[in-house]
């Protein structure tokens, strides 16, 4: 299983990769989790990889190898779409976070990203307002956990294993809000 997590620095991609890695280990798989690649301290593009199976040699994922891509932000979804397998699924938070060139006025944020993704990937995408759901849970920082809930809903791994991994990985002081966010993602109605 090849999973890519793409987003912007500060969105919790590392925590998400740790939780997925913990889930895979609990299932008895050989598991590799990459380090963060990107400028995480500066709000830049960040990607992490999680691979698990009977035997995994490297955590790196090449184009057209990802079973799942979790895109925490729209621009990152379009940037990494070519890594999704033909029958893979991309789970997309429809949030827009302006990169520095857009903030400084040198570039414009691309338009119609969802339409472009649908044209390219068809029904292999799931789009949701994970930021709104996270806000309803009480903290916008749990967008990552909402998206993990959606992943758990469509992946073939028991929900209780995901809950155990969250319990083992997330600090106690924020555990309940993370569990709530996971359950909201897990229960999110998927269209199509």
Short description, anyone?
The chain is 40% helix and 22% strand. With 192 residues, it is an alpha/beta fold.
How would you portray this structure in words?
The protein has about 190 residues and is of the alpha/beta class. It has a single domain, classed as Pyruvate-ferredoxin oxidoreductase, PFOR, domain III (Pyruvate-ferredoxin Oxidoreductase, domain 3, 3-Layer(aba) Sandwich). The protein contains 8 helices and 7 strands; from the N terminus they run E-H-E-E-E-E-H-E-H-H-E-H-H-H-H. A hairpin with a 6-residue loop joins strand 3 and strand 4. The chain is globular, with a radius of gyration of 16 Å. The model has no long low-confidence stretch (mean pLDDT about 95).
